[in-house]
Each structure stands twice: as C-alpha cells, then as structure tokens.
Amino acid sequence: MEKFINYLRLSKVEILKVIFPTKEQIRNAFITVFIVVLVVSLFLALVDAIMSFSLSKLI
User: What total of structural domains would you count in the chain?
Assistant: First the structure.
C-alpha cells in the first residue's frame, strides 16, 4: 500500500509540472493546421485535375 501512496504523490508532483496550452495557443495551432491542410488539399486537387486532363487527352 505504501508503494501505491508513493506513486500517487509522485504522480501529483509530475502533473503539477505540466504546462497546459492557453486558449490563444490552441486557436493559433488550429488555424495553422487548417491552413496547411487547405493548401495541401488544393495542391493535390490541382495535381489530380492536371493528371486527369493529361490522361484523357492521351487516351
């Protein structure tokens, strides 16, 4: 039982060391990820359109 209590104490100490992100940091990360995903998806759509057009002209 002593080991378990010691484990809980050490866990509490470690949790207090954690730095949680602020709302502003979360918002900025979300916006950054959204923009990157949007740019990559537009690029892939463009590549797909070019390849589709090329293959349709080739066949």
Answer: 1
Report the SS3 class of residue 31: helix
Task: Tell me how far apart the alpha carbons of residues 34 and 27 are, in angstroms, rounded to a whole number.
Answer: 10
Asked whether residue 57 is assigned to any structural domain, the reply reads yes
The answer, yes or no, to whether residue 59 has pLDDT greater than 90, is: no
DSSP label at residue 19: -
- Asked whether residue 4 is domain-assigned, the answer is no
pTM of this structure = 0.66
24 found inside a domain = yes
Report the C-alpha gap between 40 and 18 in whole angstroms: 33
